């Protein structure tokens, strides 16, 4: 696909399209790459590393042409030469539309993912340095991405990167045992270092928009619109920050309406600074043996030890105190205003922006209208109607 983000140069950079090529032989990689126990993840990380190394000599075009948005690289491997230590399947295929970016390569391939979880029908994982998110998507989502990519790029350039839209960085197809898996890589909307304490997925609809009991039982549940209201949750920012956020939101939503896109959400994450400080004090009072064990365990592969990549940029900067963030890296973050009930950091961005109002959605709208009545605030509505209701709801989440 294309590069829309880099921590070594600027948060948003121009796309780097690729030429179409095919390879049928294994090529030894130049660097050690982490191998997951899941063959799909192993092939994904191998492919990202191999393709970026292979394409490092491809110059970035001065001007993008329509065909550049369709460019890709395919690799087919009949892998009988590999030893068992490589932990890769015997045969696999890899197709990529990816950025030519070493930082991106390091973040994705050098260490185990920070977290892997099942979400809906697929995987959702974050890179070991927590700066990138990899999400499993459908073949329909891939087609939708191709349909909007050119307009998406123009929108990002026109607003100079001042957007709440996801920052798409790469898209991949991994084929193992004749089963295809599609993955998309995005910048993490949440912080790489500030712990999240609450999380909401807001659509502006109140019908069936409450977290299930199973979801509420998780360590960090994803709450929804009804939960937001029932919890009497509010976002406490200055009037100036609210205007900036709503300006971005309105511009992005107008763009989505133009593309007939609906069913998107505002993802809201909240970091409670006071709670984080208390947790840090408790951790410092814990026995030294536990600290040593942590250092030898999870922390050993943490982003702080990496000399390169996005993590390298972060570790080279001055240390950040409790509740502090670098807006260059945490581009979706906003601090609570003076006088707020709690000192908080908010992370806000738009997600699930690939659903177009097609025949399937029209049918769902008709069915839900029959069930809930024409006046019910169901989520499946026409893009213009969805946008108006969404903006009205979001404008009221602020204190």
TrEMBL record:
<protein>
    <recommendedName>
        <fullName>Phosphatidylinositol 5-phosphate 4-kinase type-2 gamma</fullName>
        <ecNumber>2.7.1.149</ecNumber>
    </recommendedName>
</protein>
<keyword id="KW-0256">Endoplasmic reticulum</keyword>
<dbReference type="InterPro" id="IPR027483">
    <property type="entry name" value="PInositol-4-P-4/5-kinase_C_sf"/>
</dbReference>
<keyword id="KW-0067">ATP-binding</keyword>
<feature type="compositionally biased region" description="Acidic residues">
    <location>
        <begin position="279"/>
        <end position="294"/>
    </location>
</feature>
<dbReference type="Pfam" id="PF01504">
    <property type="entry name" value="PIP5K"/>
</dbReference>
<keyword id="KW-0443">Lipid metabolism</keyword>
<keyword id="KW-0808">Transferase</keyword>
<keyword id="KW-0547">Nucleotide-binding</keyword>
<dbReference type="GO" id="GO:0005886">
    <property type="term" value="C:plasma membrane"/>
</dbReference>
<dbReference type="InterPro" id="IPR023610">
    <property type="entry name" value="PInositol-4/5-P-5/4-kinase"/>
</dbReference>
<keyword id="KW-0418">Kinase</keyword>
<dbReference type="GO" id="GO:0046854">
    <property type="term" value="P:phosphatidylinositol phosphate biosynthetic process"/>
</dbReference>
<feature type="region of interest" description="Disordered">
    <location>
        <begin position="277"/>
        <end position="302"/>
    </location>
</feature>
<dbReference type="GO" id="GO:0016308">
    <property type="term" value="F:1-phosphatidylinositol-4-phosphate 5-kinase activity"/>
</dbReference>
<dbReference type="GO" id="GO:0005783">
    <property type="term" value="C:endoplasmic reticulum"/>
</dbReference>
<dbReference type="GO" id="GO:0010506">
    <property type="term" value="P:regulation of autophagy"/>
</dbReference>
<dbReference type="InterPro" id="IPR027484">
    <property type="entry name" value="PInositol-4-P-5-kinase_N"/>
</dbReference>
<keyword id="KW-0963">Cytoplasm</keyword>
<dbReference type="GO" id="GO:0005524">
    <property type="term" value="F:ATP binding"/>
</dbReference>
<dbReference type="InterPro" id="IPR002498">
    <property type="entry name" value="PInositol-4-P-4/5-kinase_core"/>
</dbReference>
<dbReference type="GO" id="GO:0016309">
    <property type="term" value="F:1-phosphatidylinositol-5-phosphate 4-kinase activity"/>
</dbReference>
<feature type="domain" description="PIPK">
    <location>
        <begin position="15"/>
        <end position="398"/>
    </location>
</feature>
